[in-house]
Amino acid sequence: MIFKEEIVLGIYSWLHMTPVSILVRNITSDGGSFAIVRLTVDSRGVQMGPKAQGQLLCSFSFNVDETYVADTEEGPRIMKAEMMNAVMQIVPDYIELTDRQTHAIREEVSVFDRVCAMRLTGGHGSSKSLWENDILPRMKSHSQLQ
Question: Looking at the record's lineage, which domain of life comes first (predicted)?
């Protein structure tokens, strides 16, 4: 069993390292103004898309009109923010995963820390910074809404 906090940290780490072009390619549409996102984990790590293999972590949709209204610089930031907010709300308190899937979630965080150490990401110096500045404030505001 793996708890929400660790799952969210793994997904956020993966989201921060994944280029927007790959995220966009793996989002499906409802034919209207909503993007549909499906995130899973298998032994290779977090996967995204309608055919992603492994254990389902979460599935959600968000309004893409807000993303398209923004300029090209703000659009990707808004899209990732929408995804992070949805992940925080949708991921359950815990999920039963295999040992390999649990390891893969934890490996996403380790890879993020290595990438940060090489100064290849913008904004965060480590998974601890990601946790303190992005995840924890969202968890607090999410728990206040419930």
Answer: Bacteria
Four-point Cα dihedral 58, 64, 66, 72, nearest 10: 110
Burial class (CB in 10 A: 0-12, 13-18, 19+), 85: middle
Residue 66's nearest CA partner among 50, 79, 53, 54 is 79
Q: Are 55 and 86 in contact (CB under 8 A)?
A: no
* Location of structure tokens 């990707």: 76
Distance CA 95, CA 26 (A): 23
What is the token pair recorded at 112? 């993020």
Number of structural domains, the chain? Answer: 1
85-126 confidence digits (pLDDT tens): 999 999 999 999 999 999 999 999 999 988 877 765 556 678
Q: What is the pTM of this model?
A: 0.82
- Residue 143, judged by CB atoms within 10 A of its CB (0-12, 13-18, 19+), counts as exposed
Please state, in angstroms and rounded to a whole number, the distance separating the CA atoms of residues 84 and 133. 13
Asked if 97 contacts 41 with a C-beta cutoff of 8 angstroms, the reply is: yes
What would the two tokens of residue 128 be?
């601890």
Domain that holds residue 21: 2-145
